[in-house]
Specification:
The structure holds two protein chains of two kinds.
Chain A lengths: L27 H15 L5 H9 L3 H6 L1 H17 L15 E2 L12 E4 L18 E11 L2 H4 L8 E9 H5 L7 E8 L3 E3 L1
Antiparallel strand pairs in A: 1-3, 2-3, 2-6, 3-4, 4-5
Helix pairs in contact in A: 1-4, 2-4
Chain B lengths: L9 H15 L5 H13 L4 H12 L1 H9 L1 H6 L10 E6 L4 E6 L8 H4 L4 H4 L1 H6 L4 H7 L9 E6 L4 E6 L11 H5 L4 H5 L12
Parallel strand pairs in B: 1-4, 2-3
Classes of the chains: A alpha+beta, B alpha/beta.
């Protein structure tokens, strides 16, 4: 989805603010939220892709103002509410390890010129908006992995080949790009077509 | 004048309610949660990553294996954890500087670096480092040569990235365990060079 979470390249968020000697958790509730999420994921109550997508679906002002664990809390509440009576241990098969055996050969190889498709799904995707319809070069194939766009919506794992793809700064940001910069993204085969 | 009771934090209240609901369903229990929190606070941190870096600096064969297949290489040091991540280590050098981000959420190699700092997960870093890495690094205190190439790795899938920073000059006399004390977390994200001063406590 073209949600508030898809932040790469956005202007307006100001300076990077760092906290000296930041504690692992600022409050007790942060630690409990983190742990509850981990426990439910390990138990297979839902999968990591559904969890991420639940966070993406937060009301935008909540996403921006509730803090990192506030987002996790909102995501958990969403999933618990939506699952209702179906919330249970092991509802989801496969656990958290996402590598899978490939059933097809990779379509692309290192050095191939590719173009990301102009995908604009309303659901979960791991193709950021800043990298759609952009020309890149395949670096490396990581084998087949669970496909988040499908898995987040309980439409099955649909394993696809995953590639490290390089994009020149100018390709992404035009004349505003800093010289000598590039972005490497890990992208699924269905996001790509030959350039 | 009477003291007002502090308004309860709504996040704390919501967390309590969520935990109560899940506890009633038998999905979580308070003691298990307490134990895991203690692990996060006490056992997990960047010391594992620092050990990997120090080993790579002092053992050329290990470094080669690390750059080829980091997941297997760190297993040699008994690292990897229950949720074994597919780890890739990126070597920084005088002409090429790698830096890691997750623009879409907060993906981070926490098995070797511990939990990420807030700045890594917040909008300013996530939005800016892909678009203007040189400016972001300068703002964070790292000035790179104008002719160096900067590669920003956006962790958009389940592969996790860690930077192998350059070994600082003047550390030739240090042993591996001493070297691990000077490797900072920020240098393994790519927003700082490894420090060459006194080890951090």
């Amino acid at each position: 989805m073209n949600g508030i979470h898809d932040m790469g390249g956005r202007h307006g968020f100001g300076r990077i603010v760092r906290e000296d000697d930041e504690p692992t958790f600022h409050t007790a509730w942060e630690g409990r939220v983190r742990t509850i999420a981990s426990l439910l994921l390990v138990k297979g109550c839902f999968n990591i892709d559904s969890f991420r997508h639940a966070i993406e679906r937060l009301e935008p002002s909540a996403y921006l103002t509730h803090g990192y664990y506030g987002r996790w809390l909102g995501g958990l509440e969403t999933l618990v509410r939506e699952l209702g009576e179906k919330l249970a241990v092991g509802r989801v098969a496969g656990g958290v390890q996402a590598e899978r055996e490939a059933s097809t050969l990779p379509r692309f190889a290192g050095g191939d010129a590719v173009r990301t498709r102009n995908l604009q799904p309303s659901g979960h995707t791991r193709l950021p908006a800043y990298a759609r319809d952009k020309r890149g070069e395949i670096g490396h194939c990581y084998g087949a992995w669970v496909f988040p766009d499908s898995n987040a919506h309980d439409r099955g794992e649909d394993p696809q080949h995953l590639y490290s793809v390089r994009f020149e700064g100018r390709e992404l940001w035009g004349e505003a790009a800093e010289p000598g910069t590039c972005v490497q993204l890990d992208l699924f085969e269905s996001y790509l077509e030959p350039a | 004048m009477s003291e007002h009771a502090q308004d309860p934090d709504p996040m704390a209240l919501r967390t309590e309610a969520l935990e109560a609901l899940l506890s009633e369903k038998g999905l979580v229990d308070a003691e298990a949660i307490d134990a895991v929190i203690a692990r996060y606070e006490e056992d997990i941190g960047p010391m594992n990553g620092a050990r990997v870096v120090a080993r790579a600096w002092t053992d050329a064969d290990f470094k080669r294996r690390l750059l080829e297949d980091a997941t297997s290489a760190i297993a040699e040091l008994d690292m990897g954890g229950a949720q074994t991540e597919h780890l890739v280590v990126l070597e920084n050098g005088p002409r090429i500087h790698n830096v890691v981000v997750c623009t879409l959420c907060s993906c981070y190699p926490w098995a070797v670096l511990g939990l990420p700092p807030s700045w890594y997960k917040d909008p300013a870093y996530r939005s800016r480092v892909v678009r203007e890495p040189r400016s972001v690094l300068r703002e964070m205190g790292l000035e790179l040569p104008a002719d160096s190439e900067i590669r920003v790795w956006d962790s958009s899938a389940e592969v996790r990235y860690m930077v192998l920073p350059e070994r600082p000059a003047g550390t030739e006399g240090l042993a591996e365990n001493e070297l691990s004390l000077i490797v900072t977390r920020d240098s393994m994200i790519g927003v700082a060079k490894a420090a060459s001063e006194t080890p951090k406590p």
